[in-house]
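User: Could you write out the 3D structure of this protein bound to 2'-monophosphoadenosine-5'-diphosphate? I've included everything you need below.
Assistant: Certainly. Input first, then the structure.
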Amino acid sequence: MLTRKNVSKTFAVIGDPIDHSLSPNIHSAAFRELNLDCSYIAYRIPKGELKEGIESLKKIKINGFNVTIPHKIEMMKYLDKIDESCSIIGAVNTVTNNEGILKGYNTDMEGFLDPLKKKKIKIQDTRILLLGAGGAARAIVAGFAKEKAKSITIANRTLEKANNLSILAKKIGLSSIPTEINKIENLEEFKIIVNATSVGLKNEQSPISLKSINSNTVVYDIVYLPMNTNFIKKAKEQKAIIIYGYEMLLGQAVRAFEIWHGVEAPYNAMKKALLGGF
Ligand code: ATR
């Protein structure tokens, strides 16, 4: 009689650029910790080649994959099933493959909220300043709506995108004010300031001056490489409460792991692997 053997499973992260992704380190560390017969690879799929890329992943019977820049929004088209987390945000970062049926989830929103919750930072009835209005900012707006923030000021270089994201915020019940990033003032009004622009990735100066914040302000940068962006350094000078981009990266990875494997993720092993990657 044939006995069913343990079949090894394969996972991936797709995007472009992808060679500096830390997701393979994080997930591989979790497999080792829990003795799982799984592997996780980084697979470069350039913009415009997503359809073919997905077909090849299906051919190798990939068990699941993460999606990153620039495919998070376009990937929605190739899903057979859409979890609620994904439909609200309009972007996907985690996919399961069940015998050719692709189901999409978005773990960025909960991943973003995780470090705020761990540090017991109150969100309800607070005023938020969000810098940026791209794909990542959408998940963040959904997170603040879920946690019932009082209002969110969305400041972006391109005002039109801030306007569009503000419409989404209002639709999901969060009062919102769109503005241009260089018109931001009165920072002392805000309890939490988040950088969701890509400014910092190339060691640029902070996108705004943080001179008027104080030690009660929470400053959260979602850029995780370098770990100490100029934005974070300026916040530290004001003795603000800091949340690093790696904390969100870890939060979304933990949740993706739990969706794929149905067991609690080994948080500490994953964190150690991530910090070793810097
Ligand atoms: P992601 O998926 O990481 O959010 P994205 O959708 O490309 O990436 O969004 C990048 C964000 O960074 C946008 O808000 C962008 O502003 P624009 O909408 O005006 O393009 C912002 N951004 C990028 N470079 C910037 C810069 N030099 N100064 C200010 N904002 C910048």
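The mean pLDDT is 95.
User: Perfect, thank you.
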